[in-house]
């Protein structure tokens, strides 16, 4: 067992280096809570129900609330989420990056209702959507996710994986040293910061797995919360196990990371073809649909259209480089962010751009 002093020092170190990451993220993600059109439409309450800086909770409909992260003020939640409350029960969406993030969302729910919580749902396995699960577990709340989520968490965040992460870190450090030019070096430096954030998040967490796997062949599933229904659906794309939650009565969709609004998407685990098809489906939803993206401001269908054009641009540039015979490793570095996406944050080049180019090359073969 660790000596208490060691524990304190270690957690101190973890939190200070996380602060470093937060400062870096603040520069990368200076995003508003919602798109201008959404704010103007008055559908989202301008006054938050709760606000802790790192996230705020806003009412977006009858019994529907969105938790919107602000990475410039802290990294407890990182992703967006929310909850749906009926007369009989409530459903929480997302486990966030830390138990503090999950606890913030749970406390906001308790401000408006005492109904039992049916479940907390993780939209997919990524660290910023699941590592706060332990808080829900401690409240005796069941955690729902796609059946592939728990096995993926074990594979990527389970025991022994710190060695793989250390190897990857060493590999990136070497690439920083040997980079051919400044832009390539900047890409690798960003990758190192992102990898450090993942490592610190996992190593300071009690990784708690979803305990109610949902079989995608049995979806969509309607959850009646009393006077309001949540519909859980599965679409391919961002990871091998993505779920979305819809509230059809109110044209609200919690997309998880199938939607990154106003930023480059993380594609390391992606099925690009499936993802682009899912976005096409979402673009057919009612024009009044309010989307709660996994990351970025709340938006309407224009957010879906923008992400589709980001994918189109990645495919177009990859196609051109493929035809010109440029090797994939070089193409991954050469992708140029076009003027219209210049302000779009990129979590890390090798989490977003690199894998997308490589996957597109595979499709062209
Ligand atoms: Zn994700």
Which spans of ≥5 residues are poorly predicted at pLDDT below 50? 1-16
Ligands bound here? zinc ion
How would you state the average pLDDT, rounded? 91
Q: What is the overall shape?
A: globular
Could you say which structural class the secondary elements and strand pairing correspond to?
A: alpha/beta
Q: Helix proportion of residues, in percent? A: 40-55%
Q: Strand order, biggest sheet? A: 1-2-3-4-5-6-7-8
Q: What does the main sheet amount to?
A: 8 strands, mixed
**Proportion in β-strands:** 15-25%
Return Rg in Å. Answer: 20 Å
Q: Count of DSSP helices? A: 12
- Amino-to-carboxy terminus distance: 53 Å
> Would you report the number of β strands?
13
H/E element order: HHEEEEEHEHHEHHHEEEEEHEHHH
List the defining traits of the structure above.
365 residues; alpha/beta; 8-stranded mixed sheet; 44% helix; disordered N terminus; binds zinc ion
Question: What this model shows, in words?
Answer:
It is a single chain. With 365 residues, this protein is an alpha/beta fold. The protein contains twelve helices and 13 strands. It has an eight-stranded mixed beta sheet. Strand 9 (221-224) and strand 10 (229-234) form a beta hairpin. The radius of gyration is 20 Å and the shape is globular. The protein starts with a helix and ends with a helix. The protein binds zinc ion. Residues 124, 126, 238, 257, 266, 294 line the site of zinc ion.
